[in-house]
Amino acid sequence: MNHPAEVQYLYSLGNEVKSVKLGLDRMRRMAAALDHPERACRYVHVAGTNGKGSTCAMIESALRRKGLSTGLYTSPHFVDPTERIQLNGKPISEAQFSDVFHEMHHVAEALIKRGELDMHPTYFESLTLMAFLVFRQARVNTVVLETGLGGRLDATNVVTPVLSVITAIDFDHMQWLGDTIELIATEKAGIIKPGVPVVVAHQRPEARLPMERAAIEHQAALLDVDQWRMQVDSLDAHGGTFTLTHHDVKLEVHCPLAGEHQLRNAATAAVSLHQLGLTPQEIFDGIGQAQWPGRLERIHQRPDVILDGAHNAAGAVALAAYIRHFHQGRRVWMIFGVMADKQVDEIAEVLFPLAHELILTAPDQARALAAAQIAQLPAARHGRVVPRVSEALAAIRQAAPEDVVFITGSLYLVGEARPLLKKMGLFA
Predict the structure, then answer these.
(1) Predicted local confidence at residue 350, as pLDDT
(2) Yes or no: domain 297-423 corresponds to CATH 3.90.76.10
(3) Tens of pLDDT along 24-40?
(4) What's 3-288's CATH class?
(5) Which of 73, 43, 76 minimizes the C-alpha distance to 57?
């Protein structure tokens, strides 16, 4: 198979959410048959609902700039699944992707034939196994590994990391993780391992108890970011600087990612990096050079065009706060599309009232919610339906130079929009 065929085969296994089969037995059997690639590197294992990708990117950036060889595994991707597996800050090549796909697939087929595996690893399991193979082959020093939708039964949870990290917990994937914050937090806390320290970001009170219980049960030191005093020194539409202080330790942090919520993610990354032994200067330099596309990413000026995958209620709240704080008084254009399994009502109520021009569309995904259905929501009464993303983006041409355009709702929408915006000359 060539790369497109391999990608299509992985897609044929089913969407990573719809086809998810929580449980680690299949991953453990595959890992053993592949001679345990998940044991070849040091891992920093990151779970949470919001901010885990940004936190991963900042941790990886600092480790790489310290001079370590790094791996990064995140999801979802924008255009191609190779983006999910990075070596030293760059996505792997199609050739590398092909090599590890065939290695993984051959072993899976052999195990199925012998009756030792119930089915082929799912889409997310397959990519996770492929990532482990890439990192072993590259002899990476440290991998920053983002969970998928869970923690306890997530495919990534076959590693024993040197550090666990749990970012903010909120409502998402409730059909799998539970319908209360405490239940969701319990699943996320499942990445806590015996004797392995865990950094915990600022949490709702009901999310903290499961983490504290798990840390006590596993005799794992719980490193609470809230125990650090945070002094914000500057904050603008493009990032901010702050100081963290805990006893006699002082960390100055420059966060290059936009949004007040990113300061909290940067604080979690800084505490994690301190635990990993980086110096204050290494932390400052490393986080300060982090990049994480598709999260309040400004790609054009006059008008400002900003990409943001605000795909759940908490993400919508963060985006709304950003709009109110930094774009008050400007005419706001919003191009919105979302997956059908998301909290569309809640997202719409938070975001849509802020849009002077609301354009409803749908990314080219089987799970996408039709734009016409979004238009039925009470908050969407002033929106206009433009089913195709390419046609929705064409409306940006009508925006005045002083306006601001947000393309938001789903990372899949952002991923589809990026190449189209480049063709339109709206990508800096």
Answers:
(1) 96
(2) no
(3) 999 999 999 999 999 99
(4) alpha beta
(5) 73
